[in-house]
Each structure stands twice: as C-alpha cells, then as structure tokens.
Amino acid sequence: MYSFKPTSMILSPFAKRNALLSCYLVLFGLLAQAKAQNSTYFNPVLPGWHSDPSCAVVDDIFYCVTSTFISFPGLPIYASKDLIDWKLNGMYAATIRYHDGQFFVICQYLNAPEGNIGVVFKSSDPYSNSAWSDPVRFKPSNIDPDLFWDDDGKVYSVMAGITLQEIDLETGDLSQPPLSVWNGTGGTYPEGPHLYKKDNWYYLMIAEGGTELNHSITIARSRNINGPYDSYANNPILTARGTDGYFQTVGHGDLFQDQKGKWWGMCLSTRSGPDWTIYPMGREAVLFPATWDEDEWPILQQVEGRMNGWHLPPRSRDVAGTGPFNDDPDRYDFSLKSSIPANLVYWRVPRQGSFSISSNGLLVVPSRSNLTGVIPTSDSDDALSLNGRRGLSFIGRRQKHTIFDYTVDLSFSPKEIDQEAGVTIFLTQFNHVDLSLVLLQQDNTANPSLFLRLRAISGGSTVDSSLTPLPEPWGPGFLRFEIQAPNATLFTFSAMPASEPQKRITVGAASGSLLSGNTGPFTGSLVGIFATCNGAGNEDTGCPEGGNAYFQRWRYTGIAQYISNETAIPTQGEHSLST
Ligand SMILES: *[C@@H]1O[C@H](CO)[C@@H](O)[C@H](O)[C@H]1NC(C)=O
Ligand SMILES: *[C@@H]1O[C@H](CO)[C@@H](O)[C@H](O)[C@H]1NC(C)=O
Ligand SMILES: *[C@@H]1O[C@H](CO)[C@@H](O)[C@H](O)[C@H]1NC(C)=O
Ligand SMILES: *[C@@H]1O[C@H](CO)[C@@H](O)[C@H](O)[C@H]1NC(C)=O
Ligand SMILES: *[C@@H]1O[C@H](CO)[C@@H](O)[C@H](O)[C@H]1NC(C)=O
Ligand SMILES: *[C@@H]1O[C@H](CO)[C@@H](O)[C@H](O)[C@H]1NC(C)=O
Question: All domains of the chain, ordered by start, with CATH?
Fold first, then answer.
C-alpha cells in the first residue's frame, strides 16, 4: 500500500551512535565514553512548525520555546537532555531565560484591541502548567522582546528595531524612551534580538533580512550596554542567503552553552531549497554548533541536514513532564478516562464544550464556521462567528515528517444539509485541503445524500473540489480517512470503511505548494480533524442538532525526513508504538 523510495538512505543518528559506541566499547572499554568525540546528528532537531526558537540551559536540561501565533495552547516549552529528543510541555513564550532559580518567559500578544500587550511569566517549575505566574504586563515598544540580567542586577529588554529598555519585572515598567542601540547591517526587519555578556563585552545578536530567503543572523558588540555597538566585519554570522542549500531562510536564533561549556545555537529554517515553493512544514527549529573563544566573535556552523559538531550528551528520554517527545508517533484511541493529548492544538481558542471524550471516542460538536469561514464585512455577531473567531471545531498536530501517514476513524450521521466532518491538512484558514463526509442535496428533486468531498482552498478561494458519492455498501459503521505524504511535494487523500480497509479508495491528491507560504508564511502545516455545519443555525443556537462527529483511532506515523532534496532518513522506530 505504501511505497517510499528515497534516492539514498542513511543510518539514523541513533543507530549510528550505537554502532559507533559498541565498536569503542569492544576496542577500548569504558575509555570510549570518557573520550569526547564529535557527534553527528540530523536537522531539523525540532521538525515541523517550530519557528523563532529561544533556549535556556539549567543543570543537564535544555529548554526551548517556539512561536505558535494563533494556534492554542500558545508557545510550547520543549525539554531535552540530549538536544535531539525534545519533550513537549505546556506554556508558551518567545524568549526563555533562567535567573536565580526561576524561569522567565517574555513575549507579547499582537494586535489586541488595546494594542500589543507584552507579558512576562515566571515559574520555578517549568513542567507544571499551574506553577507559572500570572503575567506581568508591559507596553512593548516593538515585537520580539528579550530578557537580559546585567551583573549589577539591572534587567533589560531589547526589542526589534533594535532598542534597549530597562524593565521592572514586578511592575512591567520600561525605561523611556527606548534607546536605539543598533539598526543592523542594512537588511530589512532587524528583529529577534538577544543580548549576551561575555568577556566584558555586550553582544547583540539579531535577525535581519526578513524571515524569507534573505534571512540572516548578524551581531554587534559594545563595552557599554547602552552602546555604541560595533557591527562585526564578517556579518552575517549565519545565513543561507544566496546558497543552493536545502535548508533556507536560516535566521532568528539564540545561543547557549552545554554542560561542558560548548556553545550551540538554535534558529529557524525552511526545508525548501532555493526554489522556495514547496515547504509545507514551514519554519522549523535547527541546531548548530558554535565556537566562541575569549574576546573573539562567535563562529556559527552552517546549517545543513547532516551536522557534525560538539559531542552531544547521551541520548535520554529521562525528562520530566507529560507531553510526548517530538518524534513520537500518535496512537490515540480517545477512550474514556483518556484526555486530549498535549501535542494536539486548536486554531484560536476553542469554544467551551466543543471537544470532549465520550464512550464513542472524541466527540466534536460542529462549529458554525467552517475551516475557511468568511472575511467579515461587518462587526455583527454572525460575521465574527462565521470567520472562526468564535471558535473553530478543529484540532490537529504538526506535520513533523516529510513523509508521514495519518489515519483517523469517524462516526457521523448528519441530519441537515451541509453538516460536514472530516480530516484536513491545514496551514491557515485560507490555505487548507480537506477530505470530509458531507450531507448534500444535489438538486431539488433528489433526497439529500452523503458524499466524500475533497476541497482545496488556497488564498481563501476554492481551487479544487470533487464530490464522490459515499459507496452504498460501506454502511453506517466508522469511516476511516487517510492523509499521506508519499513524497516531499504531494499529499494524497483516501477513505475506506474502518472495518474493511481493503476497500480503500484514493479520493484525490494535492500539491504541497497549496500548504506553503501564501497566507501562512509564519506557520506550518497541521494535520487533523474538523466538524462544521457550514453557517447553518444562528449565533444563539449554534449549529442545528444532529451534526456531532465522533473520532477514534487517531494514528500519525512519521516515515521519513528529507535532509536534502535527494536524501531521506527513515524515522527511527525505537520509540514508536507506545500505545
Ligand atoms: C537607527 O536608525 C534611526 C532612524 O534612522 C536613527 O534615528 C537611529 O539613531 C539609528 N540608531 C543607531 C544606533 O544608529
Ligand atoms: C533579498 O535581498 C535582495 C537585495 O536586497 C532583494 O533584491 C530581494 O528582493 C530580497 N529577496 C527577498 C525574498 O526578500
Ligand atoms: C538538488 O539540489 C541541487 C542544488 O540546488 C541540484 O543541483 C540538484 O539537481 C537537485 N536534485 C534534485 C533531485 O532535485
Ligand atoms: C568538532 O566540532 C566543532 C564544532 O562544530 C568543530 O569546530 C571542530 O572542528 C570539530 N572537530 C573535529 C575533529 O571534527
Ligand atoms: C511526488 O509524486 C508526484 C506524483 O507521482 C510527482 O508528480 C512529483 O514529481 C513527486 N515529487 C517528487 C519530489 O518526487
Ligand atoms: C463555509 O462557510 C461560509 C460561511 O458560512 C460559506 O459561505 C461557505 O459556503 C462554506 N463553505 C462550504 C463548502 O460550504
């Protein structure tokens, strides 16, 4: 059923390291472990939509946060002991720092009615959602706030621009006016700044060039925190601009040291090649080694799929927290007493009661707004409701593998025309491809009947749509939907009776270009489920009765990662099948 033929296959880093290790163990016994060899690993280390990483290290754990824009819950925190296996935890952020026994996370809500709102959360236990403080609010002068503690105890925030302000973490007060400290080297959008102090220099590392093909990391330094900052002569210190690399848009990074004092960085990148047309996973987080000698400027290693750098800590899944590891497959049956898994995300904040676990699986109450909704022409309740701002009945997980297989079983007995439930690969409300079961009346004479509908939406318009009558003999049982990425540029959509998968029909296919850039330049694809009544009913009563959908047996299996336009790495099987 599934064929996957990459042009070359390489041993997984895990297998390779094990092979290497057993070699050394045989030859040199335990000496091998004491000897710090460089390690090989593959990027991205946080595949799938994980942009703007910021990281902090405490004891033997690396913590990173990434951006999530309007998906919910907001910015997740990942924890890792080995920089390769990342475990998901609750909470969200944009710069993460550890100071004096506390984690601090600073970020902001954009375009709130009262303008942008800056927030700082703190916690002594990053694994507990409830241990995070209520936010201290501040009025940001720009986006991408950083947090920096100077040796004299003063706390600063640099923001896009690049400006510097002292910040009071109790009150959220910022010193005024913001001090312009650097404008970068002339690229557009100097942003994503981080301030570091090393060898009595203040280093200001930023992103510039915009988050597209010109993206880059540049750096300046000063003996005085207020400047003047001198730009490094060899800027940018990291970029894929002008290269023919598979990993493009490299930029917006953060630097940190491991337990042995070796420097590393994380930044974002897009696996697109210079064509930059098909990259449905969007902006992913990559890891690179760095060298930063005393009094010298840091040297960051070029980002590629196969990396060789400082010796990595031993692989470990001994990390606290409740979420799955980033590379784990999903095997969710939504049986009673289970809860909604931590790696599933909503688009905007869902309405209360839209998702619940029932004896029949995950019960999804349809939203009046479908996944696209309407572009509002008024502020009426109905316009707000139908553009999805009053909640969308959608839940999904990141596409984290170039090649993957996703299936889910649906029980759905629509009573009213236009009631619909199904699966989607979703970049934004204006770019998604859906396969659903929908009740439609084809003409005035016929009775309403059930159809499999495949619909591709790009830029808010339907670019492709097909209706396939639900085969009569498939009966009333669970229907299984399947979305596959059989190669790096294509998605295929299939349906079958869950009890008779051999009756599988391929309903259609869609190009990955529909899920790349366009209305979602900052996001990456999610794969998941939805239920809607397509605008029927009204704002008070919601959808008409009878359109509830029940989902069971949710399976997402990563199959391979492309690390160049011609090389794929099979996804490791060691940790799969943890039901
Ligand atoms: C950055 O550019 C602005 C606008 O041109 C200017 O006012 C400011 O002085 C510049 N900042 C620095 C540090 O050069
Ligand atoms: C990259 O920068 C060059 C030179 O400034 C400019 O001509 C080009 O339009 C930029 N490309 C993108 C994708 O921003
Ligand atoms: C991969 O990319 C390289 C560099 O852009 C190019 O020369 C090569 O033809 C590409 N290979 C494939 C299979 O597209
Ligand atoms: C080990 O990795 C570091 C960081 O990337 C690099 O500077 C160094 O040259 C590497 N050493 C060897 C022997 O490859
Ligand atoms: C993916 O498969 C489709 C359909 O077979 C084909 O047209 C396309 O060229 C393939 N893409 C790649 C990158 O091989
Ligand atoms: C999606 O919802 C909008 C607003 O209710 C509606 O105009 C549109 O027809 C719906 N799409 C489908 C396929 O029913």
Answer: 43-309 (2.115.10.20), 330-569 (2.60.120.200)
